[in-house]
User: What shape does this take?
Amino acid sequence: MALLEVKDLEIAVAAGGALLPVVRGVSFSVDENETLGIVGESGCGKSLTSLAIMGLLEGSQLRLTGGSISFDGRELNSLSPNERRAIMGDQMAMIFQEPMTSLNPVYRIGDQIVETIRQHRDMSKRQASDRAVELLDLVRIPEPARRIDSFPHQMSGGQRQRVMIAMALACDPKLLIADEPTTALDVTVQKEVLDLMADLQTRMGTAIVLISHDLGVIAETCDKVAVMYRGKIVEAASAAALFANISHPYTRGLLNSIPVVDHDVEWLEAIPGRVPTIDETLPGCAFHPRCSMAEIRCSAEDPAPHDVATGHTVRCHFAGKGTV
Amino acid sequence: MLLYTIKRLLALIPTLLAASVLVFLFIHLIPGDPAAILLGDTATPEDVAALTREMGLDEPIWKQYALWLGNVLQGDLGTSVFFREPVLSVIGDGAETSILLATMTMFWIVLFGIPIGILSATKHGTWVDQMTSGGAMLFASVPTFWLGLYLILIFSVGLGWFPSSGFPSISDDGGLTNLRYLILPSLTLAAPNAALIIRLVRASMLDVSREDHVRTARAKGLHPAKVAIKHVFRNALIAVAAAFGFTFAALVSEAVVTETVFSLPGIGRLVVQSILRRDYPVIQGVILVIVVLYMIINLLVDLAYARLDPRVSLK
Ligand SMILES: Nc1ncnc2c1ncn2[C@@H]1O[C@H](COP(=O)(O)OP(=O)(O)OP(=O)(O)O)[C@@H](O)[C@H]1O
Ligand SMILES: [Mg+2]
Assistant: This one.
């Protein structure tokens, strides 16, 4: 059994008495030492999916309306809040999209890392603080023994994201969820942070869920890929299989919208149209209004998942019937 | 920090000078001849003229000011026309009451304002929050004199738990038990300000709880209570500290009313009575003391602010 197994996950937003579905039947699994990439445009439900796994949906208008999340053989939704918190930050940790604001501005970064360690490990302040220095060194923050006394505002975005990674790694988690860890950083720093994560995975065997809207990043770093569109996984496969045989027009569109630097492209082919908002009801395939291949059938009937090869699943009426 | 404090204290001087001019002018614009008021209805015009000369009130106003300022700089705030005593000792007599009243009031404000504010924020949207927010709204809008009279009616006249007026010095017989005289007045004074702090703590905690770093704190697996105090309340305190400066200003004016309602021999009542008596030296002295206090409190608030928020640097 895989380390993390998400089955038919459903999340809805409570809005004026109604529940609007935003994540609709998402399933995937991640194993030790494996990186799963989740990719999709803004608003397709990537963050909500990761927050649901982490157990952070609570306390907002967001509701888990169905599905199961099993982690390390345990069904997370059946755990008590206490049992759930014992896992959070310890066996399962998360890095967020916004490095500039994800650290508490009033505490020294060392103390923030120490807080995580002491929450889950029986360590003295001294030991935990030594461990914090080690972790900062691990994420390649120069002069870590001095930097633990810095406040977040004294660090750059890239450094803060490293601190977030150090904090996430504090208790050697089995699963690391990284929600667009590099989106807010500039390109050179992006590469460093991604390399760092890959490096840590080789060293510690961590399973990683990497969320991004950049298919290029996913192609470089992931073993498996799930492409999400409007709350559903529309294409999923191993990275190798997916890029060898792209089978959903949306995945193709995402790929075409990546600038290819060495080809001297004049223009980028963006996917026309926009992601429908969550309160729009849309019969048929959610992508059909933007799809160049759409036929009458696509606006009437929602395509069921179809295996184009073993382990390569696609939700499209044209799946396996020629190139997209 | 020390350098900053010294700079700020030096900056007090020009502000104080400006304040003293304003106070002086303002008081001399109040209609009514102080000599005539002091001597009462039976005085002859000759007596009034003589006293006017004695008090130096026949001199041009700038000369009166210069004389007064010269004395103030030497630590002499003048002599009370009414008490015929140095102004400093008149103020000193009222200080015990006012300082104890202010301390007890602050105690209530912190005791009620902060925990109820935290409760209201953490139970946000539930009936607990609605009750406390509603109560806070009510107390924030109740006039001080009205609340004071009601407390007297219920707890002094009705239940007989607390005395309704006066305050024998704690150095007199009774010692610290005399503090019971200050319970109703300090509660009266605290109520609207505690209500303000409740609403402020609640609002800033709700603001902070939507910030990204709170989600990080939850992702660490911390207990919700720990998140609420260590991460939400601690950061909300920055905004709350800033408000304490304003609270002090409100407190001074409300203290005047409260001390009058409860007949407390404090500085607030002294101001009111001195205005009625046209006791210029006392009014000027008290206002000067209040201005200095206000500026010191604001300095303390700024220092606290810098302590609470590492992003603020004092320059
Ligand atoms: N707290 C919330 N209340 C109401 N709606 C929400 C909330 N959070 C997210 N949503 C909605 O749910 C949908 C999915 O949001 P989500 O944050 O998962 O998108 P995402 O794929 O992570 O996008 P991005 O790339 O911009 O981060 C969006 O349409 C968003 O508007
Ligand atoms: Mg997101």
